[in-house]
Task: structure prediction
Amino acid sequence: MADIGIIGAGTWGSALGLLLSDKGHRVTMWSAVEQEVQALRESRRHPNLPDVFLPESMIFTASLEEAMAQKELLVLAVPSIYVRTTAHAMAGWCKKDQLIVNVAKGIEESTLMTLSQVMEEELPQAKAAVLSGPSHAEEVARGLPTTCVAGAHDPDTASRVQELFMGPFFRVYTSRDVLGIEIGGALKNVIALGAGIADGLGYGDNTKAALITRGIHEIAGLGMKMGGNFETFGGLSGIGDLIVTCASIHSRNRRAGILIGKGYSMEEAMEEVHMVVEGVHSAKAAKLLAEKYQVSMPIVEQVNLVLFRGKDPAEGVKELMMRDRTSEGL
Result:
């Protein structure tokens, strides 16, 4: 069994900590907020996972040094907007060849870097990996069957992540296409906002299917232009994650989109959801990447206009429907 540090005590970090603890690993979970650490120690429950008990064997700490010391694996589980600052703070205690798997999904807006690229820049001495796929924390914490993909440039690194996480209810595949995995994971949140907006407008299953299908077309078009593999976008971190995020009641991106479709502003929707809505932070980056690589991404473009320019969502749908006639491949 391994000593594992979870850097980030949010819903996803807590669910993965429970998964790893149930496998017999020794888990230490870190939060920057001392009050959160104390509440988790006392209640053994996360507020967003109220029916799930976090075992007494799990250690909670506000000390990064304690969370990182003598750990075979570190799981970076903070929201995407905090990955750089957290990784920077970790640098002083990160040993050479430390295995770190990032489980957040997003693109850094200021640099257009993927999160593993950010992690590699801040922690060049570490062995970086990613874990992604259709995996809502609420279901993983309940032990419902889930499949993900572990990505790393080094096959042995991906295989070790697979070995540490895989169990009867959590199946893990491996891949060397780290870029493709991360582009799929980040951009599906943007498309899910669009799917939620369509739900909020009262549109039906036909609309949802169209958004998912054309959405993965946009994601794959950009991802392959950037160097990702086509097969990745047809896999768990591509179409798999996109389907679950566009359709699930657990999806915070879809929930925010529903509110926007009903007339809420972007700021009002984010406040109502009470959690980080990753798609809002990735939308601008996705648009900038589309421009940089000269890839047509009309859904991403319309989502940006609705989020940041106050465009009427119904008008955005109309413009998508009335684009110039073309073949399906374009």
Observations:
- The chain has a mean pLDDT of 95.
